[in-house]
Amino acid sequence: MNDLQGLLLNLRLAPRAEIVCFGLTTLGFSTAARLLRGVTASGAIAGGAVCFLLMVAAGWGGFAALCSVFIMTWAATRVGYRRKLQLGKAERRGGRNAGQVLANLGVSALAGALYLNSRDPRLLLAVSASLSEVAADTLSSEIGAVLGGTPRLVTTWKAVPAGTDGGITGLGTLVGLVAAFLVGLVCAATQVMPFHDLLLCTAAAMAGTLADSLLGATWERQGVLGNNAVNFLSSGIAALLGWIFAS
């Protein structure tokens, strides 16, 4: 059975009222994200697809985790917006497009689809770790760029201008750690993953965030990879580590 067949089977087996609720919730979430200018029209459609898939796979806990990621990242992009404009690192006014949404959330959606096919609980930890990494990466870069002081390149530890790919700050790293923990806490509290895997989820997320900085300092600066590819790979690394080391 492939992933699409697994999804369709779960849709057939799920109570009709639950599927309707999932659908209405997805519509409300996508509409709210668009009205808040967190996403473009294409981004709202992509985000809605991810939202619905996560709810089918992980229930309302998946929706709660996705909401926590959206709220934190949306707020972080608004902090110091003028400064980010000067650095050329500001989020576009219309929000993230479909490519950016899938670069950040595609891995969690894929892990959710795989879970529907295999029912391997480790894949739900992969979902949690991936979502936690997205929050950690976004908040560390968004907050660190305007409040973290002079960043240092992760590969050489030399001071670099704010907004440099691969540059990290102490404050940004700390904020990222808190964000990863909070998303993991939501996942644990809503039973997407066990509470005893919370620290593992946080560690996997931070490893993915570090990988994002390393890729940014090397392949992204060299033009080998774009930002979307770096985001997808780093969230994938977090998900893979969560899946490998899940208890």
Describe the structure concisely for a colleague.
With 247 residues, the protein is mainly α. The protein has helices at 3-13, 16-35, 41-78, 81-87, 98-118, 122-147, 170-189, 198-220, 227-245; strands spanning 152-153, 167-168. The protein is built from 9 helices and 2 strands, in the order ααααααββααα.
Structural account:
There is one protein chain. This protein is an all-alpha fold and 247 residues long. It contains nine helices and two strands; from the N terminus they run ααααααββααα. A two-stranded antiparallel ribbon has the order 1-2. Helix 3 crosses helix 6, helix 5 runs antiparallel to helix 6 and helix 6 crosses helix 8. It is globular. It starts with a helix and ends with a helix.
